[in-house]
Amino acid sequence: MDALVHELRESILDGRLPGGTSLPESEVAGRYEVARPTARAAIERLVSQGLLTRGTHKTARVPVFDAADVADLYLTRAVLESQVMRELARRRRVPPDALAAQEEIRAAGTDWTTAIVEPDVRFHRALVDALGSPRLSRAHGALMAEMRLCMAQVQAFRLLRAAEIADEHDAILAAVAAGDPDRAEAALDHHLDRARHELVGHLS
């Protein structure tokens, strides 16, 4: 089942299964040559991760994010990640994995590109994981699975430039390295607020 979950997940995130696509269990079972219970279990796992939605007795679908969804995702991220930035700054802890992800974003160039979605997610995941809290990492991981899909769908509208994202990440890392919790939180808030404003404005 894990292989099926992976294949469906990648198809959703890279747009091969665009927002609004329905995924009946029988169709998934036939397309991927698996038993129907396996297809059902894979779909349920993706529903639990926020990558599919399904009402009672309804066929699963790839979500389509509206302005309210985007605003709520960014609000939740801001509440969680702002405290992470403050704690990392107190410890002056800049995780190597965040630096590696930042290098990938810089390498993507200066313009818009969907190629920044994965390293951007890894950047923020690395910051949260650096605190060493399994519960916090699990909560953030579930949130970012849904966020990754949102970003992949919306970034296709060419709204967020790689260079601007990288510059804002640099500001966050500099504040953390300097041991300045207030500046680290403010840098994160600016980063998330700008993205939220661009995305919500486009979808409204």
Automatic annotation (TrEMBL):
InterPro entries assigned: GntR_C, TF_FadR/GntR_C, Tscrpt_reg_HTH_GntR, WH-like_DNA-bd_sf, WH_DNA-bd_sf
Coiled coil location: none
GO MF term set: DNA binding; DNA-binding transcription factor activity
Residue ranges of every copy of the HTH gntR-type domain listed in the record: 1-65
Record's keyword terms, sorted: DNA-binding, Transcription, Transcription regulation
Protein name per UniProt: DNA-binding GntR family transcriptional regulator
Organism: Actinomadura namibiensis
